[in-house]
Amino acid sequence: MQPGIVDHYMKYQQYDIPLPLSNYIDRIFHYKNFIPDHSIERVVPTGNIFLLIELDGFERSTYDDDLNPDGYFRNSWVSGIQKAHINISAHRDSEMMVIQFKPDGAMPFFHRPVHELTDSIRSTDYYFGSSIHLLREAILKKSEVNGKFQLVERWLSDIIDQQYSTPQEISQMIDLLTNAPFSRHHDLINTYPKTQKNLINQFKKYCGISPKVLHRIFRFNALLNIIHEKEKIVWTDIVYETGYTDQSHFIKEFQRFSGFNPSKYIENNYNDSLPNFFPLDREG
Asked: Please, which residues bridge with residue 35 across strands?
């Protein structure tokens, strides 16, 4: 349920997050006047949990792969870490406030293992009660964006409990996976000082998924950025460059994360879109 493609009409502002919140949150951003040329877009997994607050009164929808609605959301909701693509509605003149948590950054705010959120999109009521509704109402009353950001910062500072922070050895492992090619996955995992079962359990508790799945998501997002920047696509070169064992494995994983095979992806010119968002019903 992340927002869609930025165009030249949209007003986008990102907040300079102070410590200690910046230890847990990648971005807090606000956008309005979004004018998409489509009504449904596909979002690929990024390895993040998102908390979204709509400020326009529009009801959002999710869709299955036949583009039939299968979920409805309004006011505020949380998109847990996704292991496959999701399809969401895009609305003209929309306005939203979005909190994007680091891969292991959500638990100090939700105060529970984040695997409960994995592959789900849920109302925030269960996690934050009336406080999230009071925050939204206060944001709506503020005319200046910076004032809206300050309200979000104050709310996050009130609910954070750093005793739920990720253990250092898990944070270090995430940093390694973020920056290392997937071909080094097993070597990196073997540096963990405890058992592999402990590592997997800790990852699911703090990140929502196993280290292997998270590393695969990081690799796929790196792949999309490579495709986005290349003038000429040679799939065999890209398969080798991104460390897939063979082309059939590459195609299977590309299909899982994006919902398209690589040829269809290029045919639809998605390599010219933002790497994480693909319009499914673009006008014209």
From this structure: none
Predicted confidence (pLDDT) per residue in 59-111, tens digit:
999 999 999 999 999 999 999 999 999 999 999 999 999 999 999 999 999 99
For residue 284, is pLDDT > 60?
Answer: no
Mark which of 120, 136, 163 sits at the end of a domain.
Answer: 163
**Alpha-carbon span 55 to 139, nearest angstrom:** 8
Number of Cβ within a 10 Å radius of residue 127? 20
Q: What share of the chain is helix, strand, coil (3-state, %, to 5)?
A: 45, 20, 40
Q: Is 158 found in the same domain as 109?
A: yes
Question: Are residues 203 and 99 located together in one domain of the fold?
Answer: no
Regarding whether 19 and 120 lie in a shared domain, the answer is: yes
Assign 106 to helix, strand or coil.
Answer: coil
Strands laid side by side in the 86-89 sheet: 69-73, 60-63, 86-89, 40-43, 277-279
Domain CATH code at residue 208: 1.10.10.60
List the alpha helices (DSSP H) in the chain. Answer: 107-110, 125-128, 130-141, 145-159, 168-179, 185-189, 196-206, 211-229, 235-241, 247-258, 262-267
Range of the domain at 80: 11-163
Its sign, for the CA torsion 234, 236, 237, 243, is positive
The answer on 108 and 71 residing in a single domain is yes
Q: Is the pLDDT of residue 211 over 50?
A: yes
Assess whether 177 and 267 both reside in one domain: yes
pLDDT band at 48 (very low <50, low <70, confident <90, very high): very high
Same domain, 182 and 274: yes
Q: Rounded CA gap, 207 and 80, in Å?
A: 10
Q: What is the pLDDT of residues 132-185, one digit of tens each?
A: 999 999 999 999 999 999 999 999 999 999 999 999 999 999 999 999 999 999
Residues 69 and 106 in one domain: yes
| Residue 34 resides in a domain | yes
